[in-house]
Amino acid sequence: MSRTTAGSGSARTADSPWRNWAGNVTSRPVREVSPASAEELAEAVRRAAEDGLRVKTVGAGHSFTSIAATDGVLVRPGLLTGIRRIDRASMTVTAEAGTPLKRLNVALAREGLSLTNMGDIMEQTVAGAVSTGTHGTGRESASIAAQIRAIELVTASGELLTCSEKENPEVFAAARIGLGALGVITAITFAVEPVFLLTAREEPMTFDRVTSDFDALHAENEHFEFYWFPHTDNCNTKRNNRSAGPAAPAGRVSGWIEDELLSNGLFQVACSLGRAVPPVIPSIARVSSRALSARTYTDIPYKVFTSPRRVRFMEMEYALPREAAVTALREVKAMVERSPLKVSFPVEVRTAPADDITLSTASGRETAYIAVHLYRGTPHRAYFTAVERIMTAHGGRPHWGKIHTRDAAYFSEVYPRFAEFTALRDRLDPDRLFGNDHLRRVLGD
């Protein structure tokens, strides 16, 4: 293996393929680089351009699409980690692009700080999470990208560019969810607040009740989400609201039973059995949907918002106008019931307020998300295609990091500011240094 060193970063010939977390995407880059600073990254970008190679950055590989795949230079940001700066006057924190969300959350808590909202897993890097629009659920608080106050990135010319609402605002509007198409992010500045407590209330509920009361449940709770178990009329709901305390974390034993034994260990066994013997899936679903009991606990945000996800899966998620969510979900349920499909994973429903990010799935509209999953190795095309047909009929926008079949022509219809993004891309990366086949499909040439 050849290796060259620039400063404390390194470049090496790639002699093995890269695979994403789900295992459905593989790419073979010519070389990999691990820059240790923004300057080293800029030099790697300039060198790639000179060599006629395209550049893509990969974080934890949690995207189910080939958005990070490249046949050129693969940037691994493992040396670009940690908190660069905490500004308590402005209540912002600047993190290096390769910092895992888990490490950021723990470090913020140690400093008595927290993000306002976050997704339900925290294995991704901060740059990977924001670039694909990672989100949680919230009545007023939006995606991780909506909490960004400034971004530093290397452009195709090798320039280190800082953007915010005041500095390069047209880039800031788009780069918060930039799909890796506008440059390579080196650091992100997030708005934070003093750490607070959330009380989580998890409760089983029937499908008819949760869908009938969906608007009220959304209005009455700061963070509401639910899971419907296909082949049943059972749902599990989760309501997270701020609390004055005191903290009352989930018990060590009961928490392990819910989060590890039931949600990961036994669920893994059930999924493996269902993949091997699909006819048993409805029976497993009826049992597993009754296994999770009601519970209430109070803890700091990342311990409430996030949970371990050890069972690997494939996922598609669509963002719909919030008023269309219940109708669309009922259509999904009817489709599953009249089809021969056997679906082992629950369907997840979350919400987000409208935001002003150019290609955010919640851009300009109150949003509900419907996510469907299947255990890794299970044929997913028939199920995902049928669900996608329902979602697109309601003007749905697919999550940028999850499986879908949409293209630039479709996105130009469902994103009013799509042309604004592509024009900015033409200006920042006219030669498509940061392009790949996936971006050609979703953004066009």
Key terms:
eight-stranded antiparallel sheet; single chain; 26% strand; alpha+beta; five-stranded mixed sheet; disordered N terminus; 445 residues
Give the helix tally: 14
Relative strand content? 25-35%
Helix content: 25-40%
Tell me, what's the shape?
A: globular
Mean pLDDT: 93
What is the straight-line distance between the termini?
A: 35 Å
Query: Low-confidence spans: pLDDT under 50, at least 5 residues?
Result: 1-8
Radius of gyration, in angstroms, nearest whole number: 22 Å
Largest sheet: 8 strands, antiparallel
Task: Count the beta strands.
Answer: 22
Topology:
Elements: E1 3-6, E2 9-13, E3 18-19, E4 26-27, E5 31-34, H1 38-50, E6 55-57, E7 73-75, E8 83-87, E9 92-96, H2 101-110, E10 113-114, H3 126-131, E11 148-154, E12 160-164, H4 169-175, E13 184-191, E14 193-194, E15 197-206, H5 207-212, H6 214-220, E16 223-228, E17 234-243, H7 252-276, H8 281-291, E18 295-299, H9 301-305, E19 313-321, H10 325-338, E20 347-352, E21 367-375, H11 381-393, E22 397-398, H12 408-414, H13 418-428, H14 437-443
Parallel strand pairs: 5-7, 6-7
Antiparallel strand pairs: 1-2, 2-5, 3-4, 8-9, 9-13, 10-14, 11-12, 11-13, 15-17, 15-18, 16-17, 16-20, 19-21, 19-22, 20-21
Helix pairs in contact: 7-8, 10-11
